[in-house]
């Protein structure tokens, strides 16, 4: 794969940014310089991501990270892989100081809407007394989490939260296998819930398990991802969803926030199947008769080699993408974490891999800044290496990555943004 092409930075850049990346005399900074010295793509030495220290290290198996509208950092952790009862949401301030923690059974994903309401994808026990081992997918809706005094407003419980299942009975193991695998909100506090599961019959009254449930701000199920394929690999597939993102994201704004209903999907599940496309851009259009219709984003099919060398929609571009995030900034970069390659990939808002070249650069194409891998020592412990990266988000020019098996949340900033 292509590694991060960075780090033969001019010493003046490092000196001006020492408050962000540490004193050059310390061990961590020495790792940075060593990484630059062995980077095989060192020719592109003027563009790339550099670490922002300190990393958040007091976390155990982080699964998801979200920088909130309230400017707090939310990290979902899996303390015990054998039990759902120890999963937590940790709340950090901007200095990476832990302020609060709360246990949520089976927590895997987090998002927040513009009201500062929090949503956590997890599990619930329908009958802890009678069948203590059975648990089903749920989304917990909380208010006041940032203050340390959370109030549970509601719980969206599979399978009752799906309007098409309200008159159906429990399906046993098939319903137990259903998971809520991603959360995202829109400008009007609409909630998208990504769902995966084994039953995907298109002829039944009940909707397929694979897809996106849509809820309004009051928790009412108002729609589903009609038009997307729950069974086949394509550029409008919902097979094996592991992450979802929208164009509405922090910071909090009175105006200027995107009102688009479009979304982005990571399809890291179904590893036994050969899914040709595992990171997708989905267009959502309103039809007067059918309501919202979901389909492919045709702009991602433009492989303009005069502008970029690699593209998000190349066949088999990813192995096991865990999450996807869309930057709300004017550049609109897309970030994909792939645990199959232990790497982070960066794309433009039309699917070109890389970032815009600096104004004073000789490069006329997108500069590839994707990075990761196990590193020269094979231990994946360096500042640019990952061991099973999972959740990812972006805020204020800073990229946050859950490095699950290194028990840390890493932070990076494009070096051209360090001035």
Descriptive labels:
four-stranded antiparallel beta sheet, 2 domains, mainly beta, 4 helices, 419 residues, single chain, disordered N terminus, Neuraminidase, 24 strands
Notes on the structure:
A four-stranded antiparallel β-sheet has the order 1-24-23-22, with no helix packed on it. The chain contains four helices and 24 strands. The chain folds into two domains: 1-43, no CATH class; 55-410, Neuraminidase. Helix content is 6%, strand content 32%. With 419 residues, the chain is mainly beta. The model is unreliable at 1-44 (pLDDT under 50). The protein has helices at residues 11-16, 18-21, 27-38, 173-176, and strands at 49-51, 62-67, 73-77, 88-92, 98-103, 109-112, 118-124, 136-143, 151-157, 179-185, 191-196, 211-215, 221-224, 243-246, 263-266, 279-287, 291-296, 321-326, 334-338, 343-347, 371-372, 389-395, 398-403, 408-414. The radius of gyration is 21 Å and the shape is globular.
Helix coverage percent of residues?
under 10%
The rounded Rg comes to 21 Å
Q: Looking at this structure, what is the CATH superfamily of the largest domain?
A: TolB, C-terminal domain
Estimate nothing, just give the exact number of structural domains.
2
Shape: globular
Strand order of the largest sheet: 1-24-23-22
Helical region count?
4
**Poorly predicted tracts of residues:** 1-44
Helix vs. strand class:
mainly beta
| Termini separation | 29 Å
- Subunit organisation of the chains: single chain
Whole-number average pLDDT? 87
State which percent range the strand residues make up: 25-35%
